[in-house]
Amino acid sequence: MNFFRLFPLAAATVLLGAAGSYAQTTPAWNNKQCAVVLTYDDAIDVDLDNVVPALDSVKLRGTFYLIGSSPVVAKRLPEWRRAAQRGHELGNHALMHPCDGSLPGRGFVTPDNDLSKYTVTRAVNEARANNTLLTAIDGKTARTFAYPCGDLTIGGVKFYDELKPDFVAARGVTSGLQTAAQVDLTNINAYMIHGQSGDYLVDLVKQAQASHTLLVFLFHGVGGGHGLNVDAKAHRQLLRYLKAHEKQIWVAPMVEVAQKISAAQQAPQKPR
């Protein structure tokens, strides 16, 4: 039984006591209590219609993982460019969003986009092609990757191993809070959000504050537009809490947080 999932607010209270001082800060989190990353997958219309305006209204920045072949990328390219100019990250969610169709519950996977039928070379080349497209949109070369469907391997081989030089880090789909030292930059934890309340979202942030850890949200639809959805009011409640506590919480795109984690992990350890 996972205490933290069942009783998030109570868990935060326990962690607060264990932490000793709620005001404690962490260098890896930009000298704040914790880091929160807001990520949005699949390059869908509601990203531009609902999410970007909501983030901009409170001057917070997020990471949008774009599928290069999404028609929403092509038809709304100037809007994606403007979002990047305002500080949002355009992350790489692969060119075709291939998922492993051999796994249970993957009836939605088409033969053309079945990762289990890919070669590692094809997956790598498509991810790099999407990087080229994204650079043409935002002019940037540093960005992060998000595994489509959270699938890491092709025939037992981790295809991202060949992509490490191309990205700062990669986001996965396994939930969990981690310190900078615990973070695996090849598969960063994230909480998949689908139907949870605003209170649940805020309580997750409170847990991260209390434990001085990284919290990554994984959204798809916000106020509709996707089978995996969170109510727009719940999303706004989260943003309001983050804005009200911005002196204690570092909210930044994944690429910036990952760069900070990488630096912290590579820094020489001070003798105790």
Automatic annotation (TrEMBL):
SUPFAM superfamilies hit by this protein? Glycoside hydrolase/deacetylase
Can you give the residue ranges of the NodB homology domain?
Answer: 34-252
Gene Ontology MF term list: hydrolase activity, acting on carbon-nitrogen (but not peptide) bonds
Q: Which Gene3D superfamilies match?
A: Glycoside hydrolase/deacetylase
InterPro entries in the record: Glyco_hydro/deAcase_b/a-brl, NODB_dom, Polysacch_Deacetylase
| Keyword annotations | Signal
Protein name according to UniProt:
Chitooligosaccharide deacetylase
In the UniProt record, does the keyword S-adenosyl-L-methionine occur? no
State the species of origin. Hymenobacter metallicola
Query: Hey, what's the signal peptide range on this chain?
Result: 1-23
**Record GO biological process:** carbohydrate metabolic process
